[in-house]
Write a structure and sequence with these properties.
tt1808, chain A; six-stranded mixed sheet; 32% strand; alpha+beta; 22% helix; three-stranded mixed sheet; 188 residues
Length: 188
Amino acid sequence: MSAAKQFQVRRYTYDDYVTWDDDVHWELIDGVPYAMSAPSVQHQGISVNLTRLFGNYLVGKPCKVYHAPFDVRLNYSNGDDIVVQPDIVIICDQNKLDKKACLGAPDLIVEISSPSTSGMDRVKKFNCYMKAGVREYWIVDPDTKSVQIFLLENGAYIGHGYFIDPDTISVSTLPECEISLMEVFSEV
């Protein structure tokens, strides 16, 4: 499907999503498609650093880290009309994986925000992740070199801290894992 193609006014599902042009990255939230722009160099640097830090910690452990583009079908068993591509996901239950995607909520999601994605990350995705049961959600802001963390408690996200470079973050869903923001934002 061409990026310029107009979508009909209707609710789309994963079955539609997999037929769209692979040259454009899409997300599907409540049946509405959203085209994603290419990430900045700064965004990619942060993503690589975080993926490496998580990956190094997870060697030999049951949890695994995946980075975008990687499909997460948040409600695959109930409508299948929410397909997101978070920047980074950590999945501890490998039974949630099929050959193409994560089926259901990952344990941890990281979104690296930008001025153009901030509203989506802080409202639409925030609510989707909370409703789906994502236990820990990080919003990384490259401009302020900060990370805001939300933990799922009794079905709602509770702010668990606002961290800035050079703070070190203890990852709630990964016991004994600590992430140095100095390393996350280095060379960025």
